[in-house]
Amino acid sequence: MRLEDVTLTLFAACNFIRLFAYPPQIYKAATDKNGASAISYTTWGLFLIAHLQTIAYALVNRSDWWLATCFAGNAICCMAILAVAYRKSVAHARTASIGSVIPARRSLSEYIKQSIPVRTGSAAQVVRDTPRR
Fold first, then answer.
1. According to the CATH classification, is domain 3-106 in 1.10.10?
2. Is 5 helix (H, G, I), strand (E, B) or coil?
3. Assign residue 132 a region: left if phi > 0, alpha if psi is -120 to 50, beta otherwise?
4. Exposed (0-12), middle (13-18) or buried (19+): which is 126, by Cβ within 10 Å?
5. pLDDT of 107
6. Is the pTM of this model over 0.85?
7. What is the SS3 assignment for 76-128?
8. Using the 8-state DSSP alphabet, how is residue 21 labeled?
9. pLDDT tens readout for residues 45-57
10. Cβ contacts of residue 89 below 8 Å, gap of 6+?
């Protein structure tokens, strides 16, 4: 086996193994409670572009369908991460905006207790929600 064949085989094998690293990332993005805020669209977008370029190189310059297929898998996984992160961020933003538009309901007595000074004895004090000890 020539050195070129060894390096190509190792390159393709490492990129094939990398396919198994994507599912945990997709799962983390899908289950994140903060709208997948740790996912960088720029980074994953650049990975996607690099994979698409490698597919083109493998097909046009090398006529290597196996390598192109391997990188197509990588590109599909990058698209999945971007799609899941986008979907989670939109859903998170939607629930966050709904939560901010509709404030928590409070009774009139709660408003009074929080902000109206009440005269007790000779000094004015603000009545708090929790008693002091």
1. no
2. helix
3. beta
4. exposed
5. 57
6. no
7. HHHHHHHHHHHHHHHHHHHHHHHHHHCCCCCCHHHHHHHHCEEEECCEEEECC
8. G
9. 999 999 999 999 9
10. 35, 36, 37
